[in-house]
Fold:
Amino acid sequence: MTRSELEDLYSIVVTAERDTNVGMMMDESPEKILLIRVGIALGLLLSPDHSFTEVLITELTTKAAQLMPRILNQETVPNAVIPDDLLKDQLHASGLAEIIKCPGLAQDPGRDMMLRHIEEHFVGYAASVEHQLTGRERASGALDGYLIFFIGLFIASLPPTQERQRCVLQCLSSLTVLSIHYTALQGFRNILMAIQSRPSSHEHLKSLVAASEIAVSCHVRRLIFGSV
Structure:
């Protein structure tokens, strides 16, 4: 899609929302609304003033994801049920993970407050996922695995406290369950286990990263090797 085509699509969606015709568009062309809402959310995340927009980003991506069953139905795929509370928690955690990766966070005047909020949400999210997975109240998903791995690494990179150590163990428990269904996540579990079982040498972690079936991004590598 070219820039002009995207701008035209944006105008169509905005006009439909302004004229209260968005309901009809949701039924006929939900993929157009999905594309625009996700695009706006990504633009906010990439903007220099992203720090205090995570609530708006979460709302946009939640509404976008709620359109997926309609889009899938148009492709003759069985109905998908997306629990709103779980989806919002997952999307919010994903947005916070992206904020941590932004280089500008280090110079942000609200950094300390933001990090406290991020840690609080991560701890709660990790505990909720672990409880639901071990209690079989939640269907496992690959995205859960990446998020839980990232959360475990982030919490493990902070000065250890009893609550943080419990959070890392909960992440390991969730990765253990998830790796039964998604064997590629075993590499993530092995890396987090090595970090949690301090001390772990740089060479050992490097070998675990290299052995991971899922590529480890540079942002995640900084969290991993910053722990040794």
Confidence is low (pLDDT under 50) at residues 76-82. The first helix runs from residue 3 to 18. The two ends are 44 Å apart (CA to CA). The chain has two domains: 1-82, 89-228.
